[in-house]
């Protein structure tokens, strides 16, 4: 488009103008790429809760633990304090008003600046997807238990 403006003026093209347009275009594309890339690049270490950290958070009662497995999986075995919000309904659930969230799940609704929100599933795959959903919705300090229920059972028993 910028090149067309030069052509419409019917002036001789100067390489410096072409170079400036090229640099501007590449710069804009790079900035767009950087923003998109940054949205996916939450520090993996900062977003992961280890088994030891999870145990500490649970013993201090300083956690909002959400099990994103299906209800049948949750019923078959669970971390006692976990609230079941299946991954397929997570986005909608996190957008509920605090009153409706509490009514539906019988716990206080998480707030976007809470640093004690943790998602878990069986092995960490769905909880990582849940983390992405939460981050996109503004829950930037949410984390996930990478080891999942499988690791929990291995270390804690059922």
Automatic annotation (TrEMBL):
Keywords: Membrane, Transmembrane, Transmembrane helix. The chain crosses the membrane at residues 20-49. InterPro entries: Rhodanese-like_dom, Rhodanese-like_dom_sf. The keyword Membrane applies. Residues 59-157 form the Rhodanese domain. This is Thiosulfate sulfurtransferase/rhodanese-like domain-containing protein 1. It comes from Acanthochromis polyacanthus. The lineage of its organism: Eukaryota, Metazoa, Chordata, Craniata, Vertebrata.
